[in-house]
């Protein structure tokens, strides 16, 4: 069995915000150092590192997981790979690491992910022939489709926002519900910080001039459904039924997360008891434009793998890529919305693509401990029509697996 022994993340910075000057490999190094320092583990005992990153077009190239290890001063004998499942990259890293432990291929695996959407570069495609006479265009790699293959059907390659406007039409989820959900995310995230929930889950990042970023930059405590209602739709005009705004979708963000996994017997080497057990895993795919709805079946698969049902789940961490897709998933699961993202979600906290899965794991483990619940689900939608989900079990809960 694979267990979570420690988890941390940086505060998530706004696009062009406090972390804009921090390279992604430096952000990775910061959380690697922090999560290892929270244990008594000799870093040389880490069997492998699985790191997530969605972009890998700039400073996060050439296996950013390995670069993060080297910059963190971890022994050069510790290996690393970097995986890319877009928004699900660090959740995928944890799934891969947990499988290695379950099969006996490893005892201790360091996982996590990083993304600097601010520093994601523009790219200039190479021409098919040398020295073309015409102009060439730079392409932003920050988010979404780029350099699209002309063989792709047009309905697959719509923007992420347009895909979710289509989801809104399909399920009849109006603007008012979306804004209410977004305002709740900000309110709960602010309360979580004020109550100290994130104090042990977040590693401050040093900034120039002796300053540091200690809290997520995107939280707006004053957000209400009424203030959010004043924002204009981004992807469709109001006349065309547009409902998705900068206020009810996750922002562009920078940040990193790390999760230390190990077998049950690794506890002695790590020097602490596990904080969660990975009880089930699920992956699902559907049409690319329907990606926001993919967590529904991914979570069902993870629950079946864990041998439990929704009525045994006490907490859900669902990445809030868009309010509308989050609502569609919660509605489909037929669960109590009040158990979802009780400490805020990505709309408020931010969504640095490669780092969000690690955030979900750390937060979910913390919520399960806080509430004394036994089982929780972490789920994330992924561009191009995919999703991942994990079931975590709280080892301290009554009836938990030994």
Summarize the structure.
The chain is an alpha+beta fold.
Task: Summarize the helices and strands and which ones pair or pack.
Blueprint: E1 3-9, E2 13-14, H1 24-37, E3 48-52, H2 64-72, E4 81-83, H3 89-102, E5 108-116, E6 122-123, E7 139-140, H4 160-171, H5 175-194, E8 205-206, E9 212-213, H6 225-228, E10 253-262, H7 267-270, E11 276-285, H8 295-306, E12 313-318, H9 323-333, H10 346-349, H11 356-371, E13 375-382, E14 386-393
Parallel strand pairs: 3-4, 3-5, 12-13
Antiparallel strand pairs: 1-10, 1-11, 2-10, 5-10, 6-7, 8-9, 11-14, 13-14
Helix pairs in contact: 1-2, 3-11
Walkthrough of the structure:
The chain has 402 residues and is of the alpha+beta class. The protein has a domain at 3-120 and 251-393: 3-Layer(aba) Sandwich (Peroxisomal Thiolase, Chain A, domain 1), CATH 3.40.47.10. The protein has helices spanning 24-37, 64-72, 89-102, 160-171, 175-194, 225-228, 267-270, 295-306, 323-333, 346-349, 356-371; strands at 3-9, 13-14, 48-52, 81-83, 108-116, 122-123, 139-140, 205-206, 212-213, 253-262, 276-285, 313-318, 375-382, 386-393. The strands form three sheets. Strands 1, 2, 3, 4, 5, 10, 11, 12, 13 and 14 form a ten-stranded mixed β-sheet that branches. The termini are close together. The mean pLDDT is 97.
């Amino acid at each position: 069995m694979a267990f979570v022994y420690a988890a941390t993340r940086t505060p998530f910075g706004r696009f062009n915000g406090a972390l804009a000057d921090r390279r992604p490999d430096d952000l990775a190094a910061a959380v690697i150092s922090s999560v290892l320092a929270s244990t008594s583990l000799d870093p040389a005992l880490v069997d492998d590192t699985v790191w997530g990153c969605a972009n890998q077009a700039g400073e996060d190239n050439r296996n950013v997981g390995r670069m993060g290890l080297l910059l963190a001063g971890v022994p050069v004998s510790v290996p690393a790979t970097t995986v890319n499942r877009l928004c699900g990259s660090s959740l995928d890293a944890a799934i891969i690491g947990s499988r290695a432990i379950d099969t006996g291929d490893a005892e201790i695996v360091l996982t996590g992910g990083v993304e600097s959407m601010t520093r994601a570069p523009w790219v200039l495609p190479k021409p098919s022939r040398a020295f073309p006479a015409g102009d060439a265009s730079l392409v932003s790699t920050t988010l979404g489709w780029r350099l699209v293959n002309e063989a792709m059907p047009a309905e697959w390659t719509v923007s992420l926002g347009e895909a979710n406007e289509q989801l809104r039409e399909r399920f009849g989820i109006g603007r008012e519900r979306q804004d209410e959900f977004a305002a709740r995310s900000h309110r709960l995230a602010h309360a979580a910080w004020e109550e100290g929930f994130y104090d042990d889950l977040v590693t401050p990042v040093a900034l120039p001039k002796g300053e540091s970023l200690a809290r997520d930059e995107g939280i707006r405590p004053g957000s209400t459904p009424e203030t959010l209602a004043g924002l204009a739709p981004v992807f469709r005009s109001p006349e065309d039924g547009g409902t998705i705004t900068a206020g009810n979708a996750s922002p562009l963000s920078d940040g990193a997360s790390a999760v230390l996994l190990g077998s049950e017997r690794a506890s002695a080497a790590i020097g602490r008891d596990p904080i969660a057990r990975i009880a089930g895993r699920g992956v699902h795919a559907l049409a690319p434009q329907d990606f926001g709805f993919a967590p529904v079946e991914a979570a069902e698969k993870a629950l079946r793998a864990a041998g439990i049902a929704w009525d045994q789940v006490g907490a859900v961490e669902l990445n809030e890529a868009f309010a509308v897709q989050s609502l569609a998933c919660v509605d489909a699961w037929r669960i109590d919305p009040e158990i979802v993202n009780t400490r805020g979600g990505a709309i408020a906290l931010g969504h640095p693509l490669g780092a969000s899965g690690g955030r979900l794991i750390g937060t979910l483990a913390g919520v399960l401990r806080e509430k004394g619940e036994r089982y929780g689900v972490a789920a994330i939608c992924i561009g191009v029509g995919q999703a991942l989900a994990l079931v975590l079990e709280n080892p301290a809960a009554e009836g938990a697996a030994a």
